[in-house]
Amino acid sequence: MRTLSSVGRRYGIGGPWVLRGVDLELAAGTLVRVEGTNGTGKSTLLRLLAGIDAPTEGRALGRPRTAYVPERFPAALPFTAAGYLTHLGRIHGLSRRTAATRAGEWLERFGADAHARTPLAELSKGTSQKVAAAQALVAAPELLVLDEAWTGLDTAARAELDRAVAERVADGAAVVFVDHDPRRLADAVDTRYAVERGGLVRRTEAAHSAVGPLVRVDVVGPVPPEGLPGAPALTPGPDGTHTLTVPAAHSDALLRALLTARPPWHIQGVSRP
Question: I want to staple 142 with a disulfide (CB 3.0 to 4.6 A). Which of 65, 106, 163, 268 is the partner?
Fold first, then answer.
């Protein structure tokens, strides 16, 4: 997928090393959180993973289809919101019709469809950030890199981005993110790393002591297969029923997997435990 091998990065000849000796291997279908105090090099690490910056030393291996949401979105571009998303979809190889359709779908999901024809330079900061998130998802990237992407979004849009992340992971993508909120996707993170003193340290403790919200899905059918989104806990019931309990961030992806299976599962109910 994407590997950094003994990577170092500094800016300018003879400048101080921002990162050095970084080894990181991203696997498909994983969610990775990067932590660290301000100025430690988190954004530099994400830019290296996204292929925006090149290592000063070491090697960055793998060329997955990658999308990146920066902390500050460059809104002063000569496009409308929909035009920009369609343009990026075309760059990623989508047909014009498909790119335009997906642009509309993502603007609607983030609650920005009313601004589809608004020039980027005229958008509010919050709406600009919605477009920034949408542009990263139009072409269904194999590697999604998010640098404080939730900052500036309203509550509904933040929840939608949570769902989009869960969908990408469920579809086999790797997602790497930085966010100031320690609770962000805490129940779904596979691995946590911290940038410390120019290096990368893997956290071995639990991602977060608090368990996030859960969703219970009651289904009828044979034993559900392994590999469902969110790795739901399975509780057998009477008469061929089963209860699947999954972190809320993965619930939409789980329901989609159950409904699109062949044959589809019969869902009796969805509730909070």
Answer: 65
Other CB atoms within a 10 A radius of the CB of residue 20 amount to 19
In contact, 91 and 136? CB cutoff 8 Å: no
Structure confidence by residue, pLDDT tens digits, 230-259? 778 888 877 778 888 887 777 888 888 888
Confidence of residue 175 (pLDDT cuts 50, 70, 90): very high
User: In whole angstroms, what is the distance from residue 172 CA to residue 134 CA?
Assistant: 19
Distance CA 234, CA 273 (A): 13
CA dihedral over 139, 143, 146, 150, signed as positive or negative: positive
CA 17, 148, 177, 172 torsion-angle sign = negative
Residue type present at position 266: H
Which residues fall within 8 angstroms of residue 178, CB to CB, at 6 or more apart? Answer: 33, 34, 35, 42, 43, 46, 146, 147, 148
**Where are the chain's structural domains?**
1-65+141-210, 74-140, 214-271
Residues 256, 199 contacting (CB under 8 angstroms): no
At 204, the pLDDT band (50, 70, 90 cuts) reads low
Tokens representing residue 257 in the block:
């997997």
CATH topology of domain 1-65+141-210: Rossmann fold (3.40.50)
| Per-residue pLDDT band at 212 (split at 50, 70, 90) | low
CB of 174 closer than 8 Å to CB of 15: no
- Distance CA(185)–CA(187), nearest Å, equals 5
Q: Which residues contact 213 (CB under 8 A, 6 or more apart)?
A: 187, 247, 248, 272
Q: 207 pLDDT band (50/70/90 cuts)? A: very low
Confidence band of 23 (pLDDT split at 50, 70, 90): very high
* CB distance 119 to 79 below 8 Å: yes
